[in-house]
Hints:
Blueprint: H1 4-10, H2 15-39, H3 42-52, H4 66-82, H5 85-108, H6 123-138
Amino acid sequence: xxxxxxxxxxxxxxxxxxxxxxxxxxxxxxxxxxxxxxxxxxxxxxxxxxxxxxxxxxxxxxxxxxxxxxxxxxxxxxxxxxxxxxxxxxxxxxxxxxxxxxxxxxxxxxxxxxxxxxxxxxxxxxxxxxxxxxxxxxxxxxxxxxxxxxxxxxxxxxxxxxx
Length: 163
């Protein structure tokens, strides 16, 4: 499982504590989506929606992670344009942790999760960090949403009403 709920359960917290953290993460994710829909272009808002979507349900699994990949692919032009090399490397590394942690854990320790021992889940913190870093990068973009600017000739001062 890749949710914040799974992280806290795997660390030994009670189900009540874990679901409380999951509720906070879900509210955070939904707030990101709502604000992104007003602040960013439709493509950027859809990318944020895809990357934040796995933080809503406590029952998100490894096989749900391609949704994050789709969101990151939609945001890649903005990461290249607005993000530093260090930020891009952090997002790539965090994506690798989110997607590869469970596989690596199952490969190295095939018996983990058998019996009463719950395997450590690290994808949840990676997903939270990806979303936070994504927001930090996109917040630098002060442009109007795509398609909002009129195609004006050189030297023209014509702007749309949203500008």
